[in-house]
Input
Amino acid sequence: MNDECLVPNLQEKSLTGQRIVYDSVMSRGGVGKIVIDKRMIHDARNAYGRYKDYLEEKNRKDKEAQTKTDSKKRAAKELIEAQAKKSKILSDCSEMSAQLDERIVELKNILRS
Output
């Protein structure tokens, strides 16, 4: 396809579609020799509907991906919070254990005397 036909930021699907149309027209001898039949008119009329379906599917997939990403972020945040909570509980337990050990030693000393 000629560079003059290319539009900046043209998506790959659009470029492929343009190439297919161009090749098809050229294989039939050019624009002047194309016969426009009912099927071609029907396909042209339905093109926007297919495009809307494509956009809806793309949006659905994007939403699913976003939901999955949000879920992973939420799980990562909960994991960090749970690990912090566990660490605090273990720290508190070790402090209480140390205090109890000291009290046990004091009571044993009292019983020995």
